[in-house]
Design a protein that fits this description.
The complex is a heterodimer. Chain A has a domain of 267 residues: Amidase signature (AS) enzymes (Alpha-Beta Complex), CATH 3.90.1300.10. The radius of gyration of chain A is 21 Å and the shape is globular. The longest helix of chain A has 24 residues. In chain A, strands 1-3-2-4-6-5-10-11-9-7-8 form an eleven-stranded mixed beta sheet, sandwiched between helices. Chain A is built from 16 helices and eleven strands. In chain A, helix 5 packs parallel to helix 6 and helix 7 runs antiparallel to helix 15. By secondary structure, chain A is α/β, with parallel strands linked by helices. By secondary structure, chain B is α+β, with helices and mostly antiparallel strands. Chain B has three domains: 287 residues, no CATH class; 114 residues, no CATH class; 58 residues, Arc Repressor Mutant, subunit A, CATH 1.10.10.410. Chain B contains 15 helices and 16 strands. Chain B has a nine-stranded mixed beta sheet. Chain B has a three-stranded antiparallel beta sheet with strand order 5-4-15, with no helix packed on it. A two-stranded antiparallel ribbon of chain B has the order 3-16. In chain B, strand 12, helix 3 and strand 13 form a beta-alpha-beta unit. The longest helix of chain B is centred in the middle third of the chain and has 20 residues. The chains are: A alpha/beta, B alpha+beta.
Chain lengths: 487, 479
């Protein structure tokens, strides 16, 4: 049965189409796999295996409506799901059940895709290791002593460990791409505005995007097809013509102009990562792409601007968790102020508090101009720099994470070092452009290395095309598999 | 120094609830007085993941208000978050507008205390959302949150400190209210909280720089605003006269005690940490959009006033009174049109109706009867069916239990006696009973006629046609 769980979604779809497999068989295979491996990985916060099995049976009996109906999925626990807990891996929302579905969840439901449950994350999506979950850590299936990355660590680990065929994550500064990179799977952060944020519990409203975490590039394009599109309920969602992202996957990339910004390969990027990226560049050359190194000095400014903007917005967005209407309320308080202070002190974890305090500080009168306003200027600068780059190149190629998966606990006491894990990814959110992370090999310890392909606004097709061509060439999934190593 | 040596400087921040059908960022109803928490949704109760979508009607209404108060309309405006914690504010921030409001630099004209026209400048008008309400928990301790009002659209109209007396403040507010009612963007019911004003007051000696100002909140009627200003003005003068300084602070007006209490001073003023609302785009308006709204603006009080004077022959004073309220003005026009007697309708509105509204301490829009009913009352007098003294009784009835005037006089038996035979009978009877008066009259005492008519009226319980009565007495006495 474990074979079923190693199929990609487009393979499963074919097997459903020609009746080789039923939805029930597929779903049960995943449930068995979860029963076998979830104890080791800890990818889920909430499982809904029984409901999933019933839904699969129903689809088998009543027939499939959507193209991908009957295929299971895992959902990051910051996407609202009607009737199923949405915790954001926080004590604050430990028992919170949303009365409505996020727009992306609604789209999955309409397609007939079956949720196996909600996936673990750093609390309120703040972190790069999933160690900030208030419930439990998630382990990297390649080496159980290392982190899966974050904040969508549960989503990436679940896909890597074949606990789900694909998953939804969210990416504010790298939260889809970095865990995808660390877990050897494919993660796509769409252009800001391409996917509705309605029902995504907000971390930083101007940076957050929902995106797919999948086994391969084709599945990424398929899931993007399902979740992308204008939503009247999200004023920041773009109203554009629908694109079929699978259509241009197989296009020849001969002559594709790939820019390699040298500043992304500087200090802090491990030799292993550099080496694999260099090999990837050679592969692209072999595929006929035109590669050029150039200067794009945005990474370090972006990181500073990112932590100011993201924390500022978070400090405001998380104000609603006040213990008044829903969520955690402290048992002891003698005044309204104490109700607020005690509920938020007990309900939020350290990293969340750290960012709320930082965000409150940068918005305070007297500091606003020096921090928030300046960060907005940096944001404009970064966007312009990327725009310039895209006047010359179709796609940019960079590392995703400076290192491969690090050991659990090794950075959790050093927030600054943890923040540096986002150095290659945050500028993409700052500029609102799309980027995909795909595996390009393993390091000396056998841990996956990811490569980031960055595109211009709404040019997901180009990066998917470039990623697909590369994937077909190196056949990562055929050569490497997570082994649940314990040392 | 004498009190007269001081000048009071007043600026007003008026919040008006817009009368859109739905809330500013979701499609919940704005209806007042519904059961608690029945007009709420994930957006206005700030559930995780919910996002605001700006109601375009709110922008339209605010632009109308801006145009009607001579503001320039910003073509590039923005929403901002104002952050603070309070249980009636579910998101812990209010979506408002900080440095890029929708309307800027307008003015409205009022009469100053010397009867001259004066401009009160308007600094800005911006859109924002109302908060919910805290209700005392009748079943236990603490408070209960009602979010029906959360997200009801508001405009805040901020004046420059151009007002110089509580009477001017009162005229400014009444004028503003009438403008908002004329353009139909707010019903301005102070009793329902749909019009609220915060008042900034300072005093200084004439010729010297402005003094430190205080801000007063919690006034819930025009009268209490005037009282609060008067109180605060005197308090500040007294402080200064005693050699003290004025502390910049926010004060709460207590209407029962007739005094202000300190809420917070400048030191513990909140830092609202304004920043641009990332969930909403900028508000871009085209010239065409603004022009179209301008064209659709209804006739404003100034223009109605001109029309009443020039076309309907009303006096300036009468026209002013009637146009001060859109409700009265509409009542006048409609009742005038139906009855064909604008002059009479005008007199009723400016005398008896105004008196009763005053006595009852109600707002004109709380007048319970319709223009049709008023018009019928006027027609009944014109046709001689009732006398004007009966008509006053009918008007009282209209205020108490509004229904058709013809039905009222029918029920009460108030129809005027205009039958010649009946009138003559009464006249002869009164003359026979009052010989002395007849002698007096014939001896040159004209007053006696009045007495006789009065007796006849008494006899007929006011129902006799006074004109006919008068004429008949004269005829009989001069025989």
């Amino acid at each position: 049965m474990s074979e079923i769980t190693s199929y990609t979604v487009h393979e499963l779809k074919e097997k459903l189409d020609n009746k080789e497999l039923t939805s029930e068989e597929i779903t049960k295979a995943y449930i068995n796999r979860i029963n076998e491996k979830e104890k080791e990985v800890g990818a889920f916060v909430t499982l809904r295996t029984e409901e999933a099995e019933k839904e699969a049976k129903k689809i088998d009996i009543e027939g499939r409506t959507g193209t991908y109906a009957g295929i299971p999925i895992g959902i990051k626990d910051n996407l609202c799901t009607k009737g199923v807990k949405t915790t954001c891996s926080s004590k604050m929302l430990e028992n919170f059940v949303s009365p409505y579905d996020a727009t992306v969840v609604e789209k999955l439901n309409n397609e007939g895709i079956i949720s196996l449950g909600k996936l673990n994350m750093d609390e309120f999506a703040m972190g790069s290791s999933t160690e900030n979950s208030r419930f439990h850590i998630t382990r990297n299936p390649w080496n159980l002593n290392t982190v899966p990355g974050g904040s969508s660590g549960g989503s990436a680990a679940a896909v890597a460990a074949d606990l789900v065929p694909w998953a939804l994550g969210s990416d504010t500064g790298g939260s889809i791409r970095q865990p995808a990179s660390l877990c050897g799977v494919v993660g796509l952060k769409p252009t800001y505005g391409l996917v509705s944020r309605f029902g995504l519990v907000a971390f930083a409203s101007s940076l957050d995007q929902v995106g797919p975490i999948t086994k391969d590039v084709k599945d990424s394009a398929i899931l993007l097809n399902i979740i992308a599109g204008h939503d009247e309920k999200d004023s920041t969602s773009a109203n554009r013509e629908k694109i079929d992202y699978t259509k241009s996957l197989e296009k020849d990339i001969k002559g594709l102009k790939i820019g390699v910004p040298k500043e992304f390969f500087g200090e802090g990027i491990s030799e292993d990562v550099k080496e694999k990226l260099q090999e990837a560049i050679e592969t692209y050359k072999a595929l006929g792409a035109e590669i050029e190194e150039f200067s794009l000095d945005v990474a370090k400014y972006s990181l500073a601007a990112y932590y100011i903007i993201a924390c500022a917005e978070a400090s405001s967005n998380l104000g609603r968790f006040d213990g008044i209407r829903y969520g955690y309320r402290a048992e002891e308080f003698n005044s309204l102020k104490e109700l607020y202070v005690n509920s938020r002190t007990e309900g939020f974890g350290d990293e969340v508090k750290r960012r709320i305090i930082l965000g409150t500080y940068v918005l305070s009168s007297g500091f606003y101009d020096a921090y928030y306003k300046k960060a907005q200027k940096v944001r404009t600068y970064v966007s312009n720099e990327f725009e310039k780059a895209f006047s010359k190149y179709d796609v940019l190629l960079t590392p995703v994470s400076p290192t491969t998966a690090f050991e659990i606990g090794s950075k959790s006491n050093n927030p600054m070092e943890m923040y540096l894990a986002d150095i290659c990814t945050v500028s993409i959110n700052i500029a609102g452009i799309p980027a995909i992370s795909i595996p390009c090999g393993v390091d000396k310890k056998g841990m996956p290395v990811g490569m980031q392909l960055i595109g211009n606004k709404f040019e997901e097709e180009k990066i998917l095309n470039a990623a697909y061509a590369f994937e077909q060439k190196i056949k990562f999934r055929e050569n490497y598999k997570p082994e649940f190593k314990k040392n | 120094m004498a009190r007269e040596d001081y000048e009071v400087i007043i600026g007003l921040e008026v919040h008006a609830e817009l009368s859109t059908k739905t809330k500013i960022f979701c499609s919940c109803k704005t209806e007042f007085g519904a059961e608690p928490n029945t007009h709420i949704c994930p957006v206005c109760m700030a559930l995780p993941g919910a996002l605001p979508v700006l109601n375009e009607k709110v922008v339209e209404y605010a632009v109308k208000a801006g145009l009607a108060t001579n503001c320039s309309i910003s073509k590039d405006s923005r929403n901002d978050r104002k952050n603070y914690f309070y249980p009636d504010l579910p998101k812990s921030y209010q979506i408002s507008q900080a440095d890029k409001p929708l309307c800027n630099n307008g003015y409205i004209e009022i009469e100053d205390d010397n009867g001259n026209t004066k401009k009160v400048r308007i600094l800005r008008i911006h859109i924002e959302e109302d908060a919910g309400k805290l209700n005392h928990n009748e079943f236990g301790g603490g408070s209960l949150v009602d979010l029906n009002r959360a997200g009801v659209p508001l405009i805040e109209i901020v004046s420059e400190p151009d007002i110089r007396s509580e009477a001017e403040a009162d005229r400014y507010l009444k004028k503003l209210k009438s403008i908002l009612q004329y353009i139909n963007v707010s019903d301005c019911k102070m009793q329902e909280g749909s019009l609220r004003a915060d008042v900034n007051v300072s005093v200084h000696k004439k010729g010297e720089p402005f003094g430190t100002r205080t801000e007063m909140k919690n006034m819930n009627s025009f009268k209490s605003i005037s009282r609060a200003i008067e109180y605060e003005k005197n308090r500040q003068i007294d402080e200064l006269e005693r050699g003290n300084t004025i502390i910049q602070e926010t004060l709460r007006w207590d209407d029962l005690e007739g005094r202000t209490f300190s809420m917070r001073n400048k030191e513990d003023a909140q830092d609202y940490r304004y920043f641009p609302e990332p969930d909403l785009g900028v508000i871009k308006l085209s010239d065409e959009y603004i022009e179209n709204i301008k064209k659709e603006l209804p006739e404003m009080p100034e223009s109605r006033k001109e029309r009443y004077i020039n076309e309907l022959g009303l006096s300036e004073k009468d026209s002013n009174n009637i146009t001060s309220s859109k409700f009265l003005s509409d009542l006048f026009e409609k009742a005038g049109e139906i009855s064909g007697n604008y002059k009479a309708v005008c007199n009723w509105i400016n005398s008896d109706i105004a008196r009763i509204v005053n006595e009852k301490e109600i707002e004109p829009e709380q007048i319970p009867f319709t223009a049709e009913e008023l018009a019928e009352l006027v027609k009944l007098i014109d046709k001689g069916t009732i006398s004007s003294s009966i008509a006053k009784k009918v008007l009282d009835e209209l205020f108490e239990n509004p229904r058709k005037p013809s039905q009222i006089i029918e029920e009460k038996g108030w129809i005027q006696i205009s039958d010649e035979g009946q009138i003559k009978e009464v006249v002869l009877k009164i003359l026979a009973e009052n010989e002395q008066s007849v002698i007096d009259y014939k001896g040159g005492k004209d007053r006696a006629l009045g007495f006789l008519v009065g007796q006849a009226m008494k006899q007929t319980k006011g129902k006799a046609n006074p004109k006919m009565l008068n004429q008949m007495f004269l005829e009989e006495l001069n025989k």
